[in-house]
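Friendly challenge for the regulars: who can give me the structure tokens for this chain first? No prize, just bragging rights.
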Amino acid sequence: MDDYEIEIPQYFICPISLQIMKDPVTAITGITYDRESIEHWLFKSRNTTCPVTKQPLLRDSDLTPNHNLRRLIQAWCTQNSVDRIPTPKTPLNKFHFIKLLKDLHLHPQNQIKTLRQLELFAAENERNRKYMAEVGVGKGVLSFIITCFDKDQVPGLEEALGILNFLRIPSAETRLLITVENDKVIESLTWVLGFDEIENHVAIKSNAVIVLRKIIETVSSKVLERLKREFFKRIVGVLRQGGITQQGINAALHVLLEACPWGRNRILMVESGAVFELIELELSTPEKRTTELILGVLFHLCCCADGRAQFLSHSGGIAVVTRRILEVSPAADDRAILILSLITKYARNSVVSQEMLKVRCVEKLCKLFQYDCAPYLKEKARQILTSHYHDLKDSPCIDLSILSTCTAQL
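First reply, four minutes later:
Bragging rights claimed.
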């Protein structure tokens, strides 16, 4: 359609998308929008005002179908030889999802079919996802996964995890389920991460770790304090083996970061080989957000002696952290310098000093003083250089005047 040849009536245009409305609905403020646009505005973007009037517009506000306007648009399209706007399907309501949830539990022979329907509806739009969360679909599907774990059965897992990947699981619902089922929810998802030979294992494992992240972010500290050794072995194993999506990798790193504040968890991560695998992952030059997460976890693990020892045992540890300084983001600078600060504080020997020279760490730290970064980072850099000054000052690779200036009190 050529907009320069055919004048479109202004009231056919959605105020948000500025396109002809396919499914016009009227908000409580009296303004008509295309359903997809206003639902995205309310549910996805989480805005709370009417885009036109700026009046309050709650997410649960009724959106009334404007059938007369839709018919006028369809008639106009026909008259002007424009592709006719199809009559939209009637939106699903909560009762439809309540029925599907009952079918999931009451009719085991149709579980796969029911799960596929729920996954399709979850992928369709934010309104469906909102209703599914409200009627407890997330809890129901998690219970299904626990049953799969108990019976060691795989059919339906891919669809169930796909549904949970789309849904936002309410925190209270998650806490209640974990209280009732003890640690079965986390154990079930950990079990899924061990799949390597089944069909679509990449999608299944990726969705499992994404759902696991949602769970870990909502549970109480008591749950995080009793995470098991197998849990960390599986998460680290996912990073080691690869074979999952980038979103899955970031979710796995988020899970580790959430568990880091507890010393016991850090020890279990180190024993699972987390430090080595994180360095290996960073050496593959991941995206910015992944680097920030990797450095964040590494900082926590380097707070313990075994973590620092594992870091130094990897020939690329100091090199890859050094490389990220002033190259990624202020957040990455913060974590990288704090990691080097921990390593050099507890390992003041010539071997570390020579490694710093070899990978141009000293040069990078001196360069830091020329940039507008946080004073405490410059102080950390000064402390690192000062602690190894004796081994660095005689190196022909270093300008002693610059090194002396950087190690002076700020």
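The chain is about 65% helix and 0% strand. The first strand starts at residue 24 and ends at 26. Your move, everyone else.
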